[in-house]
Amino acid sequence: MQKDHGSSAPSTPTSARLRHRRRSNEFNFEMSKTNGNHLLINDHDKYKSMWIRACSSLWMLGGFLLIIYLGHLYILAMVVVIQIFMASELFNLLRRAHEDKRLPGFRILNWHFYFTAMLFVYGRILSHQLVNTVTSDKIFYKLVSKLIKYQMVICYFLYIAGVMWFILTLKKKMYKYQFGQFAWTHMILIVVFTQSAFTVANIFEGIFWFLLPASLIAVNDVAAYFFGFFFGKTPLIKLSPKKTWEGFIGASVVTTISAFVLANVFGHFQWLTCPRKDLSTGWLLCDPGPLFKPEYYPLPGWLSRWVLPWKEVAILPVQWHALCLSLFASSIAPFGGFFASGFKRAFKIKDFGDSIPGHGGFTDRMDCQMVMAVFAYIYHQSFVVPQDYTVEMIINEILRSLTLEEQQILYTKLGQILQERMVEL
């Protein structure tokens, strides 16, 4: 009697390993093809998913507002934590458990490169604020000045040590996997730390320039979700089947209106608009500058007589800049999400992680934020920061670039020059 091999074929080690390797965030694209376009308006479980998404969003919003209230350094710490989660999700994306078992210490090598890049990027960005923080302590000032001076050398040799470590761990029949992981690690560093550099720079230019762009992306995302949830019928792009034109257009309108209103609200708080020049944690008080001083525009007579009770309206100049930011946030920044969707489809995963219920991983939430942070910094430097040198800008450059002894020499020489000019007059 012959056995029925077709009905009771034993599972091979390969198939068992594949089942073991399947993660919770993997997505069955073959099944999705049979279901057709999965628009939110046709999703039978949409209310359950909306409830989960809403609850986790409220928790994130509460924590985010608390950190914003605490100030610049706490926001910086939040950015660092988010980056570590993003790096972890991306490191794990192409990992193979079987190969990693044969490479002890290879995961530690990836994090060695990560923290070397962190030291390089944040050291360059925060050097100015660090010097301003320790100017009162002469010994500490000298130590910090030396660390800043040799920071690039330290980072370079840390990186070279990582490369040597990588070369010494190469194993036969695993070269392709190891070099693939090496290249993937460097791509992650470029993606994560490029946007982080601009994000941190925005924070120290004033929390306003970090908070407003981040808020616009959040508003655009929520508005697109709800418009697509209730009205979405026309697919927008094949990479994201649940994205619809109704959600895209509705979110653009809501984001534009929100930008104008939020810029006015945020612009009335000095601790949001003042730039941070050191690493202290106290609240800031400063001259808000012309961007945050209201300008008054008269209303037409018929409008003030029949519709509105006032004759003029006060608008902060920064509100016009906010409209430009909203245009980018609603029309171009979403392509960061489309890029991430295409990337996930290429690797056949639904989300980068499952850290946030209803949202996926931190990388899923930060895809558009990364694009927006870079644009916000470039826009601020190009159209907001004065192009001419000011006294404050020159003083800040002196404090950052010169040692205490060099500053004293400069002070003496400037005094001599001023005395000579006074004599000539």
Automatic annotation (TrEMBL):
Entry keyword annotation includes rRNA-binding: no
Cofactor details (free text): Requires a divalent cation for activity.
Membrane topology: Multi-pass membrane protein
GO BP field: CDP-diacylglycerol biosynthetic process
Subcellular location: Membrane
A GO term for molecular function: phosphatidate cytidylyltransferase activity
UniProt region (Disordered), positions on chain: 1-20
Pathway linked to the protein: Lipid metabolism; Phospholipid metabolism; CDP-diacylglycerol biosynthesis; CDP-diacylglycerol from sn-glycerol 3-phosphate: step 3/3
EC supergroup of this enzyme: transferase
Reaction(s) catalysed (UniProt annotation): a 1,2-diacyl-sn-glycero-3-phosphate + CTP + H(+) = a CDP-1,2-diacyl-sn-glycerol + diphosphate
GO cellular component, one term: endoplasmic reticulum membrane
Main location: membrane
EC number: 2.7.7.41
Needed cofactors: Mg(2+)
Residues that span the membrane, as ranges: 75-94, 106-127, 147-170, 182-201, 207-232, 244-266, 318-340
Record's keyword terms, sorted: Lipid biosynthesis, Lipid metabolism, Membrane, Nucleotidyltransferase, Phospholipid biosynthesis, Phospholipid metabolism, Transferase, Transmembrane, Transmembrane helix
Family classification: Belongs to the CDS family.
Function: May be involved in the synthesis of minor phospholipids and in modulation of IP3-mediated signal transduction.
Protein name in the entry: Phosphatidate cytidylyltransferase
Organism field: Gossypium tomentosum
